[in-house]
Specification:
Layout: E1 5-10, E2 29-33, E3 37-39, E4 41-42, E5 45-46, E6 55-56, E7 61-62, E8 69-74, E9 81-86, E10 89-96, E11 102-107, E12 135-138, E13 142-143
Parallel strand pairs: 4-13, 10-12
Antiparallel strand pairs: 1-2, 1-11, 2-3, 3-5, 6-7, 8-9, 9-10
């Protein structure tokens, strides 16, 4: 993985400095990449909004600064779920059957990239409401992208 990403990992995953999310394998990690793709076991799945800051110009001025990305885990639902938000908009892909305990992680690859936790809280009710066209991907299974001829 070479792009900024955020995600969850099973509580048993331990990272070293400079490890990317998949340094310990794909089977215990869910990654949401800045290019609007999500991955677990198998292929990158497209269909989420991008949150990449685009650098332009001779001094790499940022074109889209300040994208807001949120991950919401619902540990009380059955099955447990992981939902993604970009700039307060619920994304159409979510993950079911996540592990009973997870770690959150962020991967940055440029010296000027910034990651800040704005809020970490237990909320009484989930805010994620599935939008039209939503679909789930199941944790622990191989994810396959759909090609045009399928």
């Amino acid at each position: 993985m070479t792009q900024p990403s955020v995600g969850i990992a099973d509580e048993t995953v331990r990272y070293e400095r400079d490890d990317d999310a998949f340094a310990r394998g794909f089977d215990k990690v869910v990654s949401f990449c800045c290019w609007g793709k999500v991955r677990h076991i198998g292929n990158w799945i497209e269909g989420l909004a991008e949150f990449k800051n685009r650098k332009i110009g001779p001094r790499h001025k940022t074109q889209n600064p300040g994208n807001w990305v949120a991950l919401e885990v619902n540990m009380d639902s059955n099955p447990r779920t992981l939902s993604f938000f970009v700039n307060c908009v619920k994304q159409p892909i979510y993950v079911t059957n996540i592990p009973p305990a997870v770690r959150f992680w962020a991967y940055l690859n440029d010296r000027d990239d910034v990651f800040r936790v704005i809020k970490f809280e237990a909320i009484p009710e989930p805010t994620a409401v599935n939008v039209k066209g939503s679909h789930s991907l199941e944790y622990g299974t191989e994810w396959k992208s759909k090609c045009a001829i399928q």
